[in-house]
Amino acid sequence: MLSSSVSSLARHAKRRTALPTIGAVRNLNVHEYISMEIMKEHGIAIPEGYVASTPEEAENQYLKGLQHTGQGHKDGVIKAQVLSGGRGLGHFKNGFQGGVHMVTKPGQAREFASQMLGQELVTKQAPNGILCSKVYMMERMYMRKEMYLSILMDRASQGPLMVASPRGGTSIEDVAASNPEVIFTQPIDIVEGLTEEQCDHMASNLGLEKGTAPYEKAVKLMKNLYDMFISCDCTQVEINPLAETPDGDIVVCDAKVNFDDNAEYRQKTIFDRRDYSQEDPREVEASKYDLNYIGLDGNIGCMVNGAGLAMSTMDIIQVKGGSPANFLDVGGGATEAQVQKGFEILNNDSNVKAILVNIFGGIMKCDVIANGIINAAKEIGIRKPIVIRLQGTNVEKAKLLIEGCGFKMILANDLEDAATKAVGVADIAAQAEKIAVDVKFESFDL
Q1: Which of 36, 45, 247 is closest to 145 using CA atoms?
Q2: What do you get for the CA distance between the two ends of the chain, in Å?
Q3: What's residue 68's pLDDT?
Q4: Using 50, 70 and 90 to split pLDDT, how confident is the model at 407?
Q5: DSSP state, 166?
Q6: Rg for the chain (alpha carbons), in Å?
Q7: Rounded to the nearest 10 degrees, what angle do helices 366-380 and 336-347 cross at?
Q8: Which is higher by pLDDT, 213 or 285?
């Protein structure tokens, strides 16, 4: 993934800009083998490759798929298909080291696949492990040169940005930190599109010599990559490494592609291949109700309307010595059903010891929030202490609903008061759980 240090290099570039986006941003992430298939459909050179769900399939693909006519088998690379970076340096919970391995002789594909499939791969990005259900058997590429190339939607430039470096095959964040001068950026006018001049400039930045076959192939690849980026509603296409082979070909050896969730209605074929098993089930459930949810590692569940208010709520929880368990934004136009579902997600999270509801009612009416919480409490019961801070539209009506609902909830006067109370009750609940003591919060005030 690109770090902010890379994309920030383009902040002062001059270009035609679009209006800033408003609202939540959610991006579909697909497996490597799907990214490769989409690239192939757009005329982008990739190694020969096959996906497998069983060790037998993987072995068969190595023996029959990766063949040189009359010359035996090609060397292969078997890759665990999980939505996480750093697979090669990861380890499986069964003790098997690495999610990427070379396959050079019969039997290895079956052996490696048997150690990967059905196991959870632990990486820096996925420290809790992520299930591997498929492996990708790919032709091994012999590389004369490893480069980096990506296109992403850049917030600073408010448009597509191409990023290139002659130093590929390693973490681009590390390159940005140690040698920022070898990372090159090219803002793209989304109306005009990627120009021939820009492609020439970036091909030279990759260290390719103008007039050579690799140079011309790199220019063509950039054009095809940008066409794919636009036509498939991508938010990021990252190739690392982009290889120059001894034969002068330019080939994508590894790629990550993200797609804008707002384009699902016109990219149905791509979105139908979403692997929900790779995503946080809480986030998947929340997305069904158009709720913006991100799981964190704290113990205070937060229900807020508006991303800015959500961020400030999480900040003040930290200031008060607590830790948020999530980012849950119900938005400005949430219904009682959406609020109820959001509350259920928080209530069902075993990590959550207390729930903090912080609503500033403008478009969002406070009584709608109150009714959603009360309905959830009636259906599933309240097992965790709830701290509620409400301000704005229909706030008095909401407070009357809460006080008369028959369920004990802790009301707060302002955000600081709410955070203090939430951290306090979360700590009490956590300590009680450790010593197996049942605690009931009977009062509205701590």
Answers
A1: 247
A2: 45
A3: 61
A4: confident
A5: S
A6: 26
A7: 50
A8: 213
**CA 417, 423, 428, 432 torsion-angle sign:** positive
Q: Summarize pLDDT for 234-253 with one digit per residue, the tens.
A: 999 999 999 999 999 999 99
Per-residue pLDDT for 446 more than 50? Answer: no
Distance CA 406, CA 30 (A): 46
Give the pLDDT confidence score for residue 41 in this predicted structure.
96
Residue 242 and residue 45: Cα distance in Å, rounded? 10
**Residue 331 — very low, low, confident or very high, per pLDDT cuts 50/70/90?**
confident
The verdict on whether 148 is a catalytic residue reads yes
Q: Which of 146, 238, 244, 289 is catalytic?
A: 238
Percent of the chain clearing pLDDT 70 (strictly above): 91
- Taking a C-beta distance cutoff of 8 angstroms, is the pair 285, 141 a contact? no
Mode of pairing for the β-strands spanning 300-304 and 354-361: parallel
For residue 200, give Cα distances in angstroms to 89, 217, 221.
35, 11, 12
The verdict on whether 238 is a catalytic residue reads yes
Cβ contacts of residue 26 below 8 Å, gap of 6+? 261, 262, 287, 292
C-beta separation of 325 from 302 below 8 A? yes
Distance (Å, whole) CA 347 – CA 176: 42
pLDDT at 22 over 80: no
**In 363-414, which ranges are continuous DSSP H helix?**
366-380, 395-403
Tokens of 212: 């050579």
**pLDDT tens per residue, range 145-194:** 999 999 999 988 889 999 999 999 888 888 999 999 999 999 999 999 99
Alpha-carbon distances of 71 from 67, 137, 140, 377, 446, rounded to whole Å: 7, 19, 15, 69, 78
CB atoms closer than 10 angstroms to residue 379: 10
pLDDT for 429 beyond 90: no
Query: What is the C-alpha to C-alpha distance for residues 422 and 322, in angstroms, rounded to an integer?
Result: 8
Residue 86: half-sphere exposure toward Cβ, Cα within 13 Å: 15
> Whose CA is closest to 194, among 164, 217, 160, 163?
160
Q: Which of 62, 136, 148, 289 is catalytic?
A: 148
3-state DSSP assignment of residue 13 = coil
Compute the distance between CA of residue 255 and CA of residue 49 in angstroms, rounded to an integer.
13
- Copy the structure tokens of residue 331: 């938005």
Rounded CA separation 422/429 (Å): 10
CA–CA separation, 158 and 188 (whole Å):
10
Q: CB within 8 A of 193, min separation 6: which ones?
A: 226, 230
Give the pLDDT confidence score for residue 442 in this predicted structure.
57
